[in-house]
Design a protein that fits this description.
Elements: H1 7-23, E1 24-29, E2 42-50, E3 53-56, H2 58-61, E4 74-82, E5 85-97, E6 117-122, E7 143-150, E8 157-169, E9 174-182, E10 191-194, E11 199-207, E12 212-218, H3 235-252, H4 261-278, H5 298-309, H6 317-328, H7 342-347, H8 358-370, H9 382-397, H10 399-426, E13 443-450, E14 456-464, E15 473-483, H11 487-502, E16 511-514, H12 535-538, E17 541-544, H13 557-572, E18 576-579, E19 582-583, E20 586-587, H14 592-596, E21 602-605, H15 615-624, E22 629-633, H16 644-657, H17 663-675, E23 687-691
Parallel strand pairs: 13-16, 16-17, 18-21
Antiparallel strand pairs: 1-2, 1-4, 2-3, 3-6, 4-5, 5-6, 7-8, 7-10, 8-9, 9-12, 10-11, 11-12, 13-14, 14-15, 19-20, 22-23
Helix pairs in contact: 1-4, 3-5, 5-9, 6-8, 8-9, 8-10, 9-10
Length: 708
């Protein structure tokens, strides 16, 4: 193949090659104690992303077919342990993406589902190099190099080749590699490096059957690693913290004189500046956006990432997005993957709008982080060290910026203290009052609309900002004409992304399901997105009446006042229950006058099928009467089974709750008990809570229509 490298990219490749090769590994069968270490057929490649962590493709660690278990599998890692020397160590697969690959594998020689990634933990302490990962969610279509294990000369070795990124696929999850050179089988799982920025942007996934070119997986897909349980630090944040601290330590160390990735980035920046000054054919150029003034130097970027890594992780993805919006001056692109760490926020500040300085935006962001509400106390003086660095760097860039940032920090400290006092004043819940209530932050909204009389549905997943930003709805994903049975699979990826954005360290975000009352029997609480735990066990799930076509019509002043009164009385308690669609087990249709005459602190209860009368009509009547909290359920399969245990259990639950606020979380606990085979909670199977919080208004938009 002809060498397609330009003079500039050829020099960039020469600079990058030794650093990338030192961190790239060969993946093969685990050492068995008899064969010499590192021998045996090559399964593929991988690369160290942090001390003790190797990133590769799931199909590489799946060598051996569908019968092989992926997570927990042990394999061999042969890596560079010094100049012209190698070492071999055992690794264990910690996680694969997507998780469903563990149960559903593709056919032989078929492409594995994206993102097709595996994270491998090294099972012994070894000294090794690590690559530098990009923080840009959207890689530029520049020249790149890809590396991996080849056997051109009969022995395995790590080699590199160059090409260009030709575009993206699957919504940015995959990168298209040009056909300037051939991707050999053993290179799967190897790194793809941007020759302009000197950062790893992808993982080699597949080659074309016709020869040159292929696909890579964007490293930003690491953000789809499984979320941590409440109160724990997730795997993604742990690995990226170790990654940033590794490069920070390498940068500030005086013990090693070898070139670091930070040194390399400085040389690449000078190379880019020279190319920009020369222009095509050696003529002066107007400039290059990568070398323009107003950007942090490579050393400053490395230091900032290291200082951010010293802090506790952010409380939620939305907390990061809020700080990015404040620093950038506009809402971040909603199509980007959820930012899960402080460094991810930096990656959303490249090239801010309106010609604003990138460095100034990053320093504003860092200032806000230094006064953020951390999930746990930071290491002594870690936040002060970050602020000292910000102030010194601002003076280098532009002295007036230091004053602006000082005022910003003072305001942030005042606001943080106000929030802490408010939390202290709120106090702990009193005796007999359960403390579990819904978080007031962002929630996930799932909307579904039926296609007339057809059994297919259009759907939309969004982030509902909540009281902090009334009316703000950020779309995450949508689709049309999904069957009822196929709806869980259709919305899976969009829901997972929305949960990553909304879940916090303290609690999983609520899922609000806005559908017409006849769809209240949709078993969303039983859907399984990851692992084996249903959604209704993982998080609170509530039902909403949709706005617009199938929802409530605009209310007059009297109706709105009645709804507000009833909602306030239910929240204050005590709670009363009233059977709306049955009388001693026999169906009945409640009259509007009867519903209007109930006490404002009543929770209407339904025990029959929502898509049939009288329950369907009753649910609409309850909505029109202004009841914001109501209960419904999917009836048991046996039509002769009595509903008395359900009503009896619910009455006890309402009495123990005392007021409305804890109901969504208490229902989640009931689902968890039933899922854990607690017979005393079986009465709650299929139960759902209608929860019309007036502070969380839904978007009043018509759904998209499907293809005609």
């Amino acid at each position: 193949m002809p060498d397609a490298r330009t003079g500039g990219s050829a020099r960039a490749f020469e600079l990058l090659e030794p650093l990338v090769q030192a961190a790239t590994v060969r993946v093969h069968a685990a050492p068995d104690g008899y064969a010499p270490p590192g021998t045996g057929p090559t399964w593929g490649s991988g690369f160290f992303v942090a001390p003790g962590w190797v990133l590769t493709c799931a199909h590489v660690v799946g060598e051996g077919g569908a019968a092989v278990r992926l997570v927990g599998r042990e394999l061999g890692i042969t890596f560079s342990s010094g100049p012209r020397t190698t070492g071999t160590v055992t690794g264990r697969v910690e996680c694969v993406l997507p998780e469903r690959l563990e149960e559903r594998r593709p056919a032989r020689r078929a492409l594995w589902d994206l993102p097709d990634l595996a994270l491998v933990r090294v099972l012994a302490p070894v000294s090794h190099a690590c690559v530098r990962l990009t923080d840009r969610a959207r890689p530029r279509l520049d020249e790149v190099a890809y590396f991996g294990c080849t056997e051109d000369l009969g022995t395995p070795e790590i080699t590199g080749r160059t090409t260009r990124l030709r575009g993206t696929a699957a919504g940015g999850a995959a990168l298209r590699l040009g056909d300037d050179d051939e991707i050999e089988p053993g290179m799967s799982g190897g790194p793809v490096v941007d020759l302009v920025h000197g950062e790893v942007v992808g993982v080699v996934k597949a080659r074309r059957h016709t020869g040159g070119g292929g696909l890579a997986v964007s490293v930003i897909q690491l953000r789809t690693l499984p979320l941590a349980a409440t109160g724990q630090v997730g795997l993604y944040r742990r690995v990226m913290q170790a990654h940033d601290l590794y490069h920070y330590d390498q940068h500030v160390s005086d013990l090693d004189t070898r070139r670091t990735w930070t040194d390399l980035h400085g040389e690449l920046g000078a190379l880019g500046a020279a190319r920009a000054a020369a222009g095509p054919g050696g003529l002066p150029a107007t400039g290059d956006p990568h070398t323009a003034a107003g950007r942090l130097t490579p050393a400053e970027r490395t230091t900032l990432c290291g200082l951010l890594a010293e802090l506790p992780p952010p409380p939620s993805s939305e907390a990061v997005r809020a700080l990015v919006e404040a620093a950038r001056g506009e809402e971040p692109d909603p199509a980007l993957p959820a930012p899960l760490s402080w460094r991810d926020g930096l990656g959303m500040l490249h090239d801010p709008p309106g010609g604003a300085g990138e460095a100034a935006a990053m320093l504003r962001y860092a200032t806000d982080v230094s006064v953020a509400d951390f999930r746990e106390p930071p290491a002594p003086d870690a936040d002060e060290e970050l602020w000292d660095w910000v102030r010194a760097t601002a003076e280098r860039l532009w002295r007036p910026l230091r004053r602006e940032l000082g005022e910003r920090r003072d305001q942030g400290l005042v606001e943080r203290e106000r929030r802490r006092r408010a939390r202290t004043a709120h106090g702990a819940p009193g005796p007999g009052r359960p403390g579990g209530t819904l978080p007031q932050g962002p929630s996930v909204l799932l909307e579904a609309w039926a296609h007339g009389w057809e059994d297919v549905y259009d759907w939309r997943v969004s982030v509902l900002a909540g009281p902090a930003h009334p009316g703000r709805v950020t779309p995450v994903g949508s689709g049309v004409r999904a069957t009822r049975a196929g709806l869980p699979e259709a919305v899976r990826d969009a829901l997972a992304e929305a949960f990553r954005r909304c879940d916090t360290h303290e609690a999983a975000a609520v899922l609000e399901v806005a559908v017409a009352p006849e769809l209240f029997g949709l078993p969303v609480d039983t859907w399984i997105l990851t692992g084996r735990t249903p959604l209704g066990v993982q998080r609170p799930v509530v039902l909403r009446y949709p706005a617009g076509r199938d929802g409530a019509h605009p209310a007059d002043a009297d109706t709105a006042h009645r709804r507000a009164d009833r909602w306030a009385r239910v929240q204050a308690g005590p709670l009363l229950d009233e059977r709306a669609d049955c009388a001693r087990g026999r169906p009945r249709t409640p009259s509007p006058a009867w519903l209007d005459g109930l006490a404002d602190n009543t929770v209407p209860v339904h025990c029959r099928a929502a898509d049939a009368e009288p329950t369907r009509g009753s649910l609409y009547a309850v909505r029109d009467a202004g009841y914001g909290a109501a209960v419904t359920r999917r009836p048991p399969a046996d039509p002769g089974e009595s509903c008395a245990p359900f009503h009896r259990g619910l009455r006890e639950e309402l009495t123990e709750a005392g007021r409305g606020a804890p109901l969504p979380v208490r229902l989640q606990a009931l689902r968890a008990r039933a899922h854990g085979a607690d017979p005393d909670a079986y009465w709650a199977n299929g139960m759902a809570l209608v929860w019309e919080d007036p502070a969380r208004a839904l978007p009043d938009e018509e759904p998209l229509q499907g293809d005609l």
